[in-house]
TrEMBL record:
Keyword field: DNA replication
Ranges where the AAA+ ATPase domain occurs: 57-218
Biological process per Gene Ontology, one example term: mitotic DNA replication checkpoint signaling
Designated name of the protein: AAA+ ATPase domain-containing protein
Entry keyword annotation includes Chaperone: no
Organism: Dictyostelium firmibasis
SMART domains with a match to the protein in the record: AAA
InterPro entries: AAA+_ATPase, AAA_22, Cdc6_ORC1-like_ATPase_lid, ORC1/CDC6, P-loop_NTPase
Family label: Belongs to the CDC6/cdc18 family.
Coiled coil: none
Length: 437
């Protein structure tokens, strides 16, 4: 078991990621060329590069999205997959520099393939602009044109560019000018977290005739998080040695991953939190494993052994997942539940129905009222209560012209509900019923 848990831990940790290009240790066993959950952006970026390459001119693009939306991963993975004979990539994280102008030195060093350089910032800038990205003296110089065609296209990735936009915009504008130079086959990407900042810088570019496109990375939705999980689990199975499809299904009990993804997405979580959840699962499973091991059992295991799961046996059970979910999300959900008016709380108890819509819920709510001798609200007050539950993030409802036709989804679990009201005297009879289901 320990070997399996170690492998899960490793594959859900951030260190093993496909991050910056220069990381040669990354002899990725990953056969997927695209990034899970980011196929659209991956393809758009690919098309952008192809288009610029075909035109034999430079171009630039902003990539923007909150942290943990896969911006760096998508672009670095794509650049790694580009043919080496046609492209060379220079990845710069703007946050790595104590002085912003040192970015010029680093770009010069990389363009010139030097191990190190004693050149200062302004000299580096001069050299970049005279040797690499310059305007022709005479238009249509055939020799130069031919030379240019043979040169590799440079992909320059300026990551975490927010700091330049905000504080050192002259450096930013200077770099963004390079792709517009005659000799330039530079494709420049500026990756930023703050859309507001990016938008602030656009008019300035427009003034000098540069219309820079912005590619957005929205927070991952449920299906994308699930896709990322499946992608990592595939890697786990490969490394651990589970080849049998049926056995793969025994790592996570059905519905567990869906539940985690749903919760993460409804909280618009950074994907790194998704990995935290899985690593926490591993820790709890490991503790459980040690606790359950007989004193005489040796915890040492054969390094080649692959656990053969029995039917209905799972490595990560729903119970374990619920425990982790309540650890991670409990406070907000539970606080929100507790802050609702009492009738809205009663609605929460009434919502575990196979078909959940306005009508079925109202009926169930009335039943629950009778159990605890409450007078039920009329439909309009009931509707207002549902609105407050939705605005507290505990339910979501699809849009439908008729209130009765709206499908309701729960964003909390039975466990969270019983956790929130475990000491309540009023709800005691309903709680008992809930826990016995
Ligand atoms: N689609 C994805 N599939 C797998 N891992 C991902 C995905 N998106 C992000 N990650 C991982 O999450 C972490 C943060 O992603 P990153 O690309 O650095 O986000 P951003 O640059 O938007 O802040 C990285 O470790 C990355 O490998
Ligand atoms: Mg990043």
């Amino acid at each position: 078991m320990q070997r399996l848990l170690d492998i899960v831990n490793k594959n859900f940790s951030l260190q093993t990621d496909l991050s910056p290009i220069d990381n040669k240790n990354n002899s990725e066993e990953d056969d997927d060329s695209e990034v899970p959950g980011r196929k659209t952006q991956y393809r758009k970026l690919g098309t952008f590069i192809n288009k610029a390459t075909k035109s034999c001119k430079g171009d630039s693009l902003y990539i923007c999205g909150t942290p943990g939306t896969g911006k760096t991963l998508t672009l670095t993975t794509l650049s790694k997959n580009l043919p080496k004979n046609k492209y060379r990539t220079i990845y710069i994280n703007c946050m790595d520099f104590s002085q912003a102008s040192k970015i010029y030195i680093e770009i010069y060093r990389r363009l010139s393939n030097l191990k190190s350089t004693k050149k200062g910032a302004s000299e580096s800038l001069e050299l970049i602009e005279s040797n690499f990205f310059y305007d022709y003296e005479t238009d249509g110089d055939q020799e130069l044109e031919n030379l240019k065609k043979k040169e590799k296209t440079v992909i320059l990735i300026l990551d975490e560019v927010d700091v330049l936009i905000e504080k050192f915009s002259s450096i930013l504008y200077r770099i963004f000018e390079w792709p517009t130079r005659d000799s330039s086959k530079l494709i420049l990407f500026g990756i930023a977290n703050d859309l507001g900042l990016v938008e602030k810088s656009l008019p300035r570019f427009a003034k000098i005739g540069m219309d820079i496109e912005v590619l957005h990375f929205e927070p991952y939705v449920e299906s994308q998080i699930l896709e990322i999980f499946q992608h990592r689990i595939k890697r786990v199975c490969k490394e651990y040695g589970i080849e049998n499809e049926e056995q793969k299904q025994h790592l996570f009990e059905p519905e567990t991953l869906e539940m985690i993804s749903k919760r993460l997405a409804s909280n618009r979580c950074d994907i790194r939190k998704a990995f935290d959840v899985i690593r926490r699962l591993v820790t709890l499973k490991f503790e459980q494993h040690i606790e359950n091991a007989d004193c005489n059992d040796s915890l040492e295991e054969d390094p080649n052994e692959v656990i053969d799961f029995e039917p209905n046996q799972y490595c990560f059970t729903m119970e374990l997942v619920n425990e982790v979910i309540s650890e991670f999300f409990e406070s907000k959900v539970v606080t929100n539940m507790k802050s609702l008016p009492i009738h809205a709380q009663l609605i929460l108890f009434s919502s575990f129905l196979t078909i959940l819509n306005f009508e079925t819920l109202y009926k169930s709510y009335k039943n629950h009222c009778s159990i605890i001798s409450f007078t039920p609200m009329g439909k309009s007050d009931f509707s207002l209560s549902i609105d407050s539950i939705v605005s507290n993030g505990l339910m979501s409802m699809n849009q439908h012209k008729l209130e009765s036709g709206r499908v309701i989804r729960l964003l909390y679990s039975k466990e969270e509900l019983s956790m929130a009201f475990k000491d309540s005297i009023i709800f005691e009879p309903i709680l008992q019923e809930l826990n016995s289901q």
